[in-house]
Amino acid sequence: MGIEKLSEAQEALQRGERVHARRLIRQVLLTDPHNEQAWLMMARVVDKQQQVVDCLEQMLKVNPGNASASWALRAIQREHSIQTSRVEPVAQIASLQPLKSSEGTITTRTCGEE
């Protein structure tokens, strides 16, 4: 049953029917949660990056030696850390506000500090 459903899901993907493909893959995973191929295909059809991460992590639970899943997960984590590092300095700068000290010089502090 699983192989036929995954083949049908692959055909649905080729036709651009992602929702139908996702339904078919979900059916396979409900009956066989250890199906690596189904987890890999699910990672291709989900909508959010966290869902992709979840699928890849599940795949690695099934087979910790799956090099493709490990590589893809590291690539996503690297991309996420690059995006985060670009945002953090802006957030840090935005949280600083100038203050005048009692001597008249300007200092900075983080918003909310006394």
Task: Tell me what you see in this structure.
With 114 residues, the protein is mainly alpha-helical. It has one domain: Tetratricopeptide repeat domain (Serine Threonine Protein Phosphatase 5, Tetratricopeptide repeat, Alpha Horseshoe). Helix content is 69%, strand content 9%. Mean pLDDT is 79; it is low at 87-114.
Please give the structural blueprint.
Elements: H1 2-14, H2 18-31, H3 36-45, H4 49-62, H5 67-94, E1 96-100, E2 106-110
Antiparallel strand pairs: 1-2
Order of neighbouring strands in the sheet with most strands: 1-2
Distance between the termini: 65 Å
**In total, how many domains does the architecture comprise?**
1
Secondary structure tally: strands: 2
Structural class: mainly alpha
Low-confidence stretches: 87-114
CATH H-tier superfamily: Tetratricopeptide repeat domain
Task: Briefly say what this structure is.
The protein is mainly alpha-helical and 114 residues long. It contains five helices and two strands; from the N terminus they run αααααββ. The protein has one domain: Serine Threonine Protein Phosphatase 5, Tetratricopeptide repeat, CATH 1.25.40.10.
